[in-house]
Amino acid sequence: MSSLRLTLCTGALLAVALTPAAYAADGGVAVTPAAPAPGGDIALRVTDCPGRTAVAASAAFVADARLTGADGTLTGETRIRTTLDTGVYGVRVTCGGTARQARLTVGGGGAAAPTGHASPVAPVRAGGGGTADLATAERSAGPGTADAVTGLVLAGVAAVAVALRSVCRSRGTD
After folding, report:
1. 3-state class of 44 per DSSP?
2. How far is it, in rounded angstroms, from Cα 170 to Cα 168?
3. What is the C-alpha separation between 92 and 89, in angstroms, rounded?
4. Which of 62, 63, 110, 154 is the most buried (most CB within 10 A)?
5. Exposed e or buried b for every residue in 123-134, given b needs 16+ CB within 10 A?
6. Distance (Å, rounded) from C-alpha 2 to C-alpha 45?
7. Cβ distance 57 to 64 under 8 Å?
8. What one-character-per-residue DSSP string does 124-145 give?
9. Can you say how many angstroms the Cα of residue 59 is from the centroid of all Cα atoms in its chain?
């Protein structure tokens, strides 16, 4: 299990290292991928930052990115809003009491924007032995004549069985 985890982590690090990044004008803020699509995940890296934590904020982000690290290099991740229009957005990184500005171009490569509904609009096909199909089937107004006749016949048979059992008990014969 350890070797699998090590392999996956190494692969992720190589993917981040080999993906082109967009650097800010001051050269201290990097965004990967360089031009993400709405709904895509991005990685942020800040260099030459005093302290061990920083915050990156932008109107393009779903939530502010918390950056952590050591030796002046901080990293973090966030997601681009799915409802965002393509264009250039500002990113403000607050690091050690100073603020750095960067620009983020949204609308290029990266993850594809999600399509479809955000939540299910019909029963989900997940177990239940196929009951999802029954939940969507149209229902009739109620039981028909055949159902009523079957119910009356079964009720009559039950009444006769109870009556015969009572007669046998009262006679003392079992």
Report:
1. strand
2. 6
3. 10
4. 110
5. eeeeeeeeeeee
6. 27
7. yes
8. --SSGGGHHHHHHSPPPSS--H
9. 21
Q: Do 22 and 34 form a contact (C-beta atoms < 8 A)?
A: yes
**137-156 mean pLDDT:** 83
Mention every residue, 6+ apart, whose C-beta is less than 8 A from residue 125.
Answer: 132
For the stretch 36-74, pLDDT in tens is 888 889 999 998 888 888 899 999 999 999 999 888 889
Phi and psi at residue 108, to the nearest 5°: -90, -130
CB crowding 78-94: b at 16 or more within 10 Å, else e? bbbbeebeeeebebebb
Q: Which two tokens stand for residue 42?
A: 């991005």
Contact yes or no for 75/68 (Cβ under 8 A)? yes
Phi, psi of 134 (to 5 degrees): -70, -30
Residue of 95, 105, 58 whose CA lies nearest to 75: 95
Beta-carbon count within 10 A of 157 CB: 10
User: The tokens of 85 are what?
Assistant: 């229009």
